[in-house]
Amino acid sequence: MTKNKMDAREIALKVLNEVEGKGAYANIALAQELNRRALQEKITNQDRRFITELVYGTVKTGATLDWMLSCFLSRPLAKVAPIIKNILRLGMYQLFYLEKVPASAACNQAVELARKYGHAGTIKFVNGVLRNAARCPEKIIFPEKDKYPVKYLALKYYHPEWLIERWVNRLGIKVCEDLCQANNTTPVLSVRTNTLKIEREALLTRLTAEGVRCQASKWTPEGILLHEHPSLITLNSLQEGLFQVQDESSMLVAHILGPQPGDFIIDACGAPGGKTTHIAALMKNTGKVLSTDIYEHKLALTRENAERLSLSNIETKVLDAVNLGSMYPLKADKVLVDAPCSGLGVLRRKPDSRWRKTKDILQDLPKLQAAILASAAQCVRPDGVLVYSTCTTEPEENQNIVNSFLQENPAFSLEPAGQYLPMDKKTADNMLQLWPHIDNVDGFFIARMRRRN
Ligand SMILES: C[S@@+](CC[C@H](N)C(=O)[O-])C[C@H]1O[C@@H](n2cnc3c(N)ncnc32)[C@H](O)[C@@H]1O
C-alpha cells in the first residue's frame, strides 16, 4: 500500500466505527468500503485479506476482547470514547489472535491511530494499555472450565452466553465446543455455476484465468469453492452472469425441491433470489417461478440477479406469505418456504450476527414460520411438493415446525430429504439437518413433503 493511501488498520477502524456507531452490518459495511476502494484505487489482494481479517476478527471476538481489555483498565470500558475503544480492540485482536503480526507493530499502529483520532491523553492511554497487555498476558485469566463451563466456553469461543447455555444443555459440552470452533472458522466462499450459460468445468477454467484459486464443490454439481479471489465485482465472469454467489448447503434446497421444466413453482420467501434463480435455471428457463417476499427492495435484488443470469422465467411479487394460500390455492406444482429464521446456522458467515441475536428470536420466529408454512402449503396442487428450509440448527424453528404442520395437515406426508441430495451425499435422513462442525457447510435444515393425490 502506498503512503498516501489509507493504511489497512485505518480502513478497518473506519468500518468498525460504522458497525459500532451506526449499527451497520459488518459484512455489508466492509464490502462497500472494499468495493469502493477496488474501483477507485489499486488495493492489493493481500491488503483486502488483512483488512477483512481485522474487521471480521475484531467484531467476532468482540465480547472476549472487551473482557480481556477490562483486565488492564482501571475504569469501565463503557466510559472510553467509542473510537478509542475500537482502536484498543483492534490492537488486542492483533496481539492475541493474529500470530503473524508482531506485538510491537500492533501497539505502534494503534498508537498512530490514537495520535490521528485522539489527543495526548488518549495516545498515552492506548500505549499503556496495549503494551501492558503485550507484556503481561498472564493477567488474563479465563473462568475455570469445570466450574463455569458456560462462561468459559462463551469467552473462549466468543459466543453469547445465552446461546452457549442452550447448546450445552441440548448438545453437551464437547459438541457445543466443536460447534463453536466451527463457527469461528472462516468459510470458503462458494458460487453456483449458471448452467444455462456455462458448464462447471469451463467456469473453473475461466475463473482460474481470472486469478481465482478454485475447486469443484463435493456437495452439488454446480458448486465451486473460491479459495482465493480478487474482488468479485472486478470479475467479468460475474458481470456476464456465469455464476451466482450462494452457499453450498443453500444450493441443496433447489435439488431437494426437484424442479422440472415447465413447472409452476412458488418461492414464498424468495429474495434476494439465490434459490429462486437456481430453481429457474434447473427448469432450463421454462415454466414460471413466482418469487414473493415481503420487501420490495429485496425483490429488486432478485430481479437484478435474474437479469444478470439471463433468466426470464421469474416473476416477483411483494406480499406477506401468510396470505399466499388464498391467492394461489392448489395452483403450484411445487412450493418452497425458505423461512425467515434466526440464522444460527450461519454464524461463521457474518461476524456480528452472534451479537445481534437474543433468545427472544426463538420465541417469536416460530409463530411466523408456522403461519407462513401453513399458508404456503395451501398453494401446493395434489401430488405436488412442499419444501421447508432454514439456515438454523434449532429444533423450535425446524423439526418442531414441520412436525406440528404434519400433524395439523394430514394431506401432507414427509419424504426422505436425504434421498434427493445430488452427488454422492445421499442419506437416509427424513429431515436433513446439516451442521458446520460435522458437514463443514453452513448449518441448514431441509424437509420435503408431498400433498396426497
Ligand atoms: C432466508 S431469507 C430468503 C433467502 C432466499 N430464499 C434466497 O435463497 O436468496 C427469508 C426471506 O423471507 C422474507 N420474509 C420475512 N417475512 C416474510 C413474510 N411474512 N412473507 C414473505 N416473506 C417474508 C425476508 O424478507 C427474507 O428475504
From TrEMBL:
Q: Which reaction does it catalyse?
A: cytidine(967) in 16S rRNA + S-adenosyl-L-methionine = 5-methylcytidine(967) in 16S rRNA + S-adenosyl-L-homocysteine + H(+)
Q: What is its EC number?
A: 2.1.1.176
Listed A to Z, the keywords are: Cytoplasm, Methyltransferase, RNA-binding, rRNA processing, S-adenosyl-L-methionine, Transferase
Highest taxon in the source lineage: Bacteria
One function term, GO molecular function aspect:
methyltransferase activity
Please report the stretch or stretches of sequence annotated as the SAM-dependent MTase RsmB/NOP-type domain: 179-452
Enzyme class, UniProt record, top EC level: transferase
Q: Which family does it belong to?
A: Belongs to the class I-like SAM-binding methyltransferase superfamily. RsmB/NOP family.
Question: What is this protein's function per UniProt?
Answer: Specifically methylates the cytosine at position 967 (m5C967) of 16S rRNA.
Q: Which NCBIfam families match?
A: PRK14902.1 (NF011494), rsmB (TIGR00563)
What protein name is recorded for this chain? 16S rRNA (cytosine(967)-C(5))-methyltransferase
